[in-house]
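Good morning,

Attaching, inline, the backbone tokens for the sequence recovery test we're adding to the shared suite. The designed sequence is right after.
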């Protein structure tokens, strides 16, 4: 009996299977994570490319004052990459590039840092009230700078969320600035108003 116990103690025949069983879950998880990150990086890169192509296409007359055609083209390009993606587009029009993410200017007569008490302001977007952004109501004026944003939301390609506590969906956002061409468009007129 003693020789049998010694023989079992020194037998290494099944060690490889046990070692593989211990390492396999981590190895499979690593491979799936690598594929997941690669897929998402590829999708993000291709979506960014589709948006940049939309920016170039917007400069030709075929897409002038026809944002729906441009959106359809971008949506098609995104869904060629990720067929199940939900694609949303938003546009914010500005008179020029320097207006982006800036408030409309006003004369702060009482020095409180708030546009109020009938203080005069420059109504850049023409909506009759002071705004903390200079975005126009319409992004179709001649020579307007348009911030074009595309959000694509899709389910993850691999079952990683359940294993790692991640969200089931991925949202990729791509932005570019388009410049409207003066094809059959009217220019905006700046007016002066008073703060409420």
């Amino acid at each position: 009996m003693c020789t049998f116990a010694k023989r079992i103690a020194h037998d290494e025949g099944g060690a490889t299977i046990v070692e593989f069983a211990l390492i396999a879950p981590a190895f499979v998880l690593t491979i799936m994570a690598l594929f997941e990150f690669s897929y998402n990086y590829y999708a993000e890169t291709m979506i960014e490319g589709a948006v940049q192509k939309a920016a170039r296409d917007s400069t030709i007359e075929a897409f002038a004052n026809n944002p729906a055609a441009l959106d359809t083209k971008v949506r098609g390009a995104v869904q060629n990459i990720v067929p199940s993606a939900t694609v949303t587009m938003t546009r914010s029009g500005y008179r020029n590039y320097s207006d982006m993410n800036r408030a409309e200017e006003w004369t702060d007569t009482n020095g409180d840092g708030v546009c109020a008490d009938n203080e005069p302001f420059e109504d850049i977007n023409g909506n009759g009230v002071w705004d903390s952004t200079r975005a126009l109501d319409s992004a179709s004026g001649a020579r307007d700078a348009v911030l074009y944003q595309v959000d694509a939301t899709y389910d993850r390609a691999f079952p990683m969320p359940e294993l790692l506590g991640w969200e089931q969906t991925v949202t990729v956002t791509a932005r570019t600035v388009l410049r409207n061409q003066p094809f059959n468009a009217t220019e905006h007129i700046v007016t002066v108003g008073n703060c409420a």
